[in-house]
Amino acid sequence: MDKDRIKAFTNKVFGDMAGAMSAGLGYIGVKTGLFRAMAGKGPMTLAQLVAATGLQSRYVEEWLKGMASAGYLAHDPAADTYQLPDEHAFMVASDETDHFMGGLFCMLPPLLRVAPRVAEAFRTGGGVPFEDYGRDGIEALDLLNRGQYEQRFASHWLKSLPEVTARLQAGGSALDFGCGAGAVVLSLARAFPQSRFTGIDRSRESIAAAQAALAASPDAASLAPRARFLAQSLADLTPGEQFDFITACDCIHDLATPVETLRQIRARLKPQGIFMVIEPKAADSVEGNGNAIGTMYYGFSVFHCMTQSLAQGGPGLGTCMGPAHIGELMKEAGFSRCDALDIRSNVLSFYAVRA
Ligand SMILES: C[S@@+](CC[C@H](N)C(=O)[O-])C[C@H]1O[C@@H](n2cnc3c(N)ncnc32)[C@H](O)[C@@H]1O
Fold it and tell me: Is 187 in the pocket of ligand 1 (CB under 6 A)?
């Protein structure tokens, strides 16, 4: 055995555990408002932060030390102050923006809560149904994606599909399949006031969250007549109802019956309609996913995406479907074209699919 490799791997395992614990402390920073309380405030003493947040001093003290150790906070030992650098606040104290990374931390509790059941499923088969990830699972997914949907979808991402923008500006209809907590429907409905938007999802709790988000919107009165959320499958939509534009965001890899469901989506596209697929950015090969984002996505897959599909008797496509795999799936479902869109993102891939 190579002693240097043992040493290097020992350090890697400690580093990975430290990363997991840092992410857990990051979750606390988001959930308790500690990051927000420190943003833009410069160096703070423990007493100042406790006064600003009303949180328990001993907990805050240990959290400060842990986050300083992890490199999230700067510590001045002489003054015993802690500071959240502006660049870090930009990423973790920026809820509702397209650069907020704190939603990632919020995935940890729902994902790791089911780890014992996932381990058991390695022996017994089956999985963990989507519903069992609970309300905080739905909230975490929403927190992860909402800022990007609100701030990039209509204004940036749709630039690569000018024909869709033209149709929606003129007054068309759009369907967001697997709409979750509704951010895509609501943001597109705001951007295209002439058009009608439907979000469907098989998760009743997600649809309830989407309906609540609609009701709580300051512009609910103008959105409500044009935006609806339905807890149902495609087959339950009015027979023959078709859409100019269909989106499926972060959900094709979750499907229990992918080819059949994609065929149903195809049947719901109007002639010349476009189906936009947004998926986690991944390569087709294991080696291509050999980076932090790929590793994170394989974890999401085992603890959630693959596992909830297997729980339904599905194929468990998994989070890391590369472009070739997605193209094959679309072809099998009868689509004539699946073009990768040239939209820059570290974490997402975009496709325009045509019947
Ligand atoms: C990872 S979540 C993504 C939610 C949302 N689109 C987003 O980007 O935040 C996947 C969603 O697909 C939904 N879903 C999975 N299979 C479905 C099906 N056959 N019909 C409708 N919705 C489905 C799930 O209930 C879940 O809300």
Answer: no
Report the alpha-carbon distance of residue 134 to residue 233 in Å, rounded. 20
> Which backbone phi and psi does 350 adopt, to 5 degrees?
-130, 140
For the CA of 233, the closest atom of ligand 1 is: 20
Q: Cα of 314 to ligand 1 centre, how many Å?
A: 14
C-beta of 156 in contact with ligand 1 (< 6 A): no
Give 183 Cα–ligand 1 centroid separation in angstroms.
Answer: 12
Tell me, in angstroms, the distance from the centre of ligand 1 to residue 59's CA.
36
Which residue bears the tokens 């998926």? 279
What CATH number was assigned to the domain covering residues 107-354? 3.40.50.150
CATH class assigned to 3-93? mainly alpha
The candidate with the shortest Cα–Cα distance to 154, out of 195, 189, 180, is: 189
**Distance from the alpha carbon of residue 301 to the mean position of ligand 1, in angstroms:** 14
Q: Which of 68, 73, 146, 67 is nearest to 106 (CA)?
A: 146
Q: Which two tokens stand for residue 151?
A: 């701030």
Q: Give the domain ranges of the chain.
A: 3-93, 107-354
Q: What is the pTM of this model?
A: 0.96
Sequence-distant (6+) residues with CB within 8 A of 172 are 192, 194, 195, 196, 243, 244, 245
Sign of CA dihedral 214, 216, 217, 222: positive
How do residues 140-156 score in pLDDT, each as one tens digit? 999 999 999 999 999 99
pLDDT in tens, 52-78: 999 999 999 999 999 999 999 999 999
